[in-house]
């Protein structure tokens, strides 16, 4: 008890000293307008730090010429009141920093009076969502920081009206999915961070037309694979952080359009294959990290390569890639039609779909006819990776006897399945219960259609 008490006192002392120094640091003349809130009229700044805006918000008054509002760690929880009482009167603010507060939601009109905003910091709040129109009038916006909130999704047009965005911080949220529209047409974008989210897949064109993007942080997600063209639209990429994901293979042309790449982190993935030519023409490369957990690649490659060290330089990386790298990591020979999202692997003499596990586009129509497939459990795990499949063609394969009753468990959107011309003798009642949209089923050697 005593120890705890002491620790608590020390903690309080630290905070007091910290706040005191904060105040001392201010040479500008301020007027205290509420508990731990100051107004600096000459500099046109409102600043609260460790204030109690849950209680004292109405004591604040800001002149219309205010340009900066910074209210951090101040227990702000009433967004509506902050809007009507502060933001509306300080119409010309350019910078607003509301980090480390208790905001759980923001009204759509929150920034409607503040059309000259260039930087918005909302990190470390409790936002589970932001209205899709929240930023719609902010033509001058250059920075948005929404990191360390509880965002589970963002509408694809959230930033559609902010063509001047340069920095978007979205790290440490709970995003499972990023719309391919989210960063569309942002010619000035320099840095995007999506680290520490729950992303498993990225749409292949999510970084399209980001001609100025230099830093991309995707650290600590659950990425299973990367479409080979994912970085094609961002030719100036320099720093790419992909550490701590679940990547198994890298397409050999992954960085083919990113000739200015300097720093690539791929540590703590599950790599089993690195293409020889991954960095073939990358003259600016300074550092590449393949350390930790990448058990499937030779130890010589499972290293950090950097020009700032005596051995394992980028020159060594190139040499070792020639020795231990793979010619290709993409092993299937199927045809991909992007416009219809169809993957055609028919008549390829395949006895397993193992090689499709790293196929990184969302397949809607999967053709596997005329192969030698026999393992329905393996199909189940492929469908777990490919949950968008609508049409599944498996006719004329070697399935026999009873099918795994959970083969379609993850194929939630399946509307049509063709298993005709196999030797299936039994299908469990539960087999179809996972597929509410299933309308067409072909089973025997003749077509037997059931409309349900
Ligand atoms: C901003 O407005 C306040 C009050 O309206 C005024 O006292 C102050 O001088 C103004 N600041 C500047 C820099 O114009
Ligand atoms: C306002 O805030 C921005 C961003 O925090 C800062 O760069 C700028 O110097 C501030 N302006 C003034 C007058 O303090
Ligand atoms: C925004 O900035 C422009 C140009 O500096 C200025 O004319 C306009 O009055 C500002 N708007 C507001 C609401 O302060
Ligand atoms: C990649 O090459 C290594 C040897 O350098 C080999 O053991 C491994 O099986 C290859 N992986 C693939 C997917 O071809
Ligand atoms: C199909 O694959 C099997 C085993 O890999 C092989 O024995 C057979 O010759 C192949 N058939 C054709 C037509 O390529």
From TrEMBL:
Q: Which SMART domains match?
A: LRR_TYP
From the broadest rank down, the organism's phylogenetic lineage runs: Eukaryota, Metazoa, Chordata, Tunicata, Ascidiacea
What name appears for this protein in its UniProt entry?
Uncharacterized protein
Q: Which UniProt keyword terms apply here?
A: Leucine-rich repeat, Repeat, Signal
Q: InterPro entries from the xrefs? A: Leu-rich_rpt (IPR001611), Leu-rich_rpt_typical-subtyp (IPR003591), LRR_5 (IPR026906), LRR_dom_sf (IPR032675), SLRP (IPR050333)
- According to its UniProt entry, this protein's organism is Clavelina lepadiformis
Signal sequence bounds? 1-27
Identify the domain of life. Eukaryota
């Amino acid at each position: 008890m005593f120890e705890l008490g002491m620790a608590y006192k020390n903690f309080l002392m630290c905070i007091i000293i910290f706040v005191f120094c904060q105040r001392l640091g201010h040479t500008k003349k301020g007027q205290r307008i509420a508990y731990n809130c100051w107004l600096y009229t000459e500099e046109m700044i409102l600043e609260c730090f460790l204030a109690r805006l849950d209680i004292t918000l109405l004591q604040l008054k800001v002149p219309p010429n205010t340009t900066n509002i910074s209210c951090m760690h101040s227990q702000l929880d009433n967004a509506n009141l902050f809007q009507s009482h502060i933001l509306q009167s300080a119409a010309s603010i350019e910078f607003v920093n509301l980090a480390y507060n208790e905001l759980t939601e923001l009204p759509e009109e929150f920034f409607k009076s503040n059309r000259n905003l260039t930087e918005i910091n909302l990190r470390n709040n409790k936002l589970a969502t932001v209205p899709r129109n929240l930023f719609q009038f902010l033509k001058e916006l250059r920075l948005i920081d929404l990191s360390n909130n509880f965002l589970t999704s963002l509408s694809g047009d959230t930033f559609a009206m902010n063509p001047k965005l340069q920095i978007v911080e979205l790290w440490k949220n709970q995003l499972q999915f990023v719309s391919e529209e989210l960063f569309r047409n942002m010619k000035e974008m320099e840095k995007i961070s999506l680290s520490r989210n729950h992303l498993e897949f990225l749409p292949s064109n999510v970084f399209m037309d980001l001609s100025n993007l230099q830093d991309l942080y995707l650290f600590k997600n659950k990425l299973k694979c990367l479409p080979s063209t994912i970085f094609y639209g961002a030719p100036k990429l320099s720093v790419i952080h992909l550490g701590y994901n679940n990547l198994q293979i890298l397409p050999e042309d992954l960085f083919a359009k990113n000739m200015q790449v300097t720093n690539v982190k791929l540590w703590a993935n599950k790599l089993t294959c690195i293409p020889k030519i991954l960095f073939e023409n990358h003259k600016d490369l300074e550092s590449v990290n393949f350390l930790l957990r990448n058990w499937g690649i030779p130890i010589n490659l499972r290293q950090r390569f950097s020009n700032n060290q005596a051995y394992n330089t980028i020159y060594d990386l190139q040499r070792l890639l020639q020795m231990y790298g793979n010619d290709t990591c993409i092993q299937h020979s199927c045809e991909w039609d992007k416009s219809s999202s169809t993957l055609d692997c028919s008549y390829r003499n395949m006895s397993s779909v193992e090689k499709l596990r790293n196929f990184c586009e969302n397949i809607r129509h999967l053709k596997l006819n005329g192969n030698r497939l026999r393992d329905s459990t393996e199909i189940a795990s492929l469908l777990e990776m490919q949950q968008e499949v609508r049409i599944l063609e498996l006719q004329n394969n070697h399935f026999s006897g009873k099918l795994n009753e959970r083969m379609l468990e993850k194929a939630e959107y399946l509307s049509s399945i063709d298993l005709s011309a196999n030797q299936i003798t039994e299908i469990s009642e539960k087999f179809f219960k996972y597929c509410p949209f299933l309308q067409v089923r072909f089973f025997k050697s003749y077509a037997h259609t059931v409309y349900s």
